[in-house]
Design brief:
five-stranded antiparallel beta sheet; 3 helices; alpha+beta
Length: 142
């Protein structure tokens, strides 16, 4: 049985963990944005038609970034990582606010079963950041 004193003693650690999870989720959003940006640069670099257009797009992307945004929409239990691309929005993944577990979305409201990564585990977190892609392929179970 947990006493009030136990709760008070463990509260700062739990608050720090929740804060770390949010920070790691922001870092995931940044990694996803950088992957999308590198993919667009790669596309325009390899394109052979209309070289003037592709050179302008490369300069524009380097100067202003891309018209895609990854951001967090927090709910009661999960952080939803949302992707806004031009004028459409979609759920990229869910992150459990207390455990740091990352889930593939089953729908816009709920995650699929099966933890894909845990952001509190440094090895899994680094692997997640290294493998993440804007389309979500890294979230499929292998």
């Amino acid at each position: 049985m947990t006493t009030f004193a136990d709760f008070v003693e463990s509260k700062p650690m739990k608050d720090e963990q929740v804060s770390n999870i949010e920070h790691y989720t922001v870092m995931l959003c940044d990694a996803l944005y950088m992957h999308k940006k590198s993919q667009e640069l790669k596309y325009h670099t390899l394109a052979t038609d209309s070289p003037d257009y592709h050179d302008r797009r490369i300069a524009e992307i380097n100067d202003n970034g891309i018209d895609t945004e990854f951001y967090i929409q927090s709910g009661r239990k999960y952080h939803k990582v949302m992707m806004r691309d031009h004028n459409s929005r979609s759920v990229h993944c869910f992150v459990d606010k207390e455990t740091g577990d990352v889930y593939k979305p089953a729908s816009i409201k709920a995650p699929a079963k099966g933890v894909r990564y845990n952001l509190l585990d440094e090895t899994q977190r680094n692997y997640c950041y290294a493998k993440c892609d804007w389309a979500g392929g890294y979230l499929y179970l292998r």
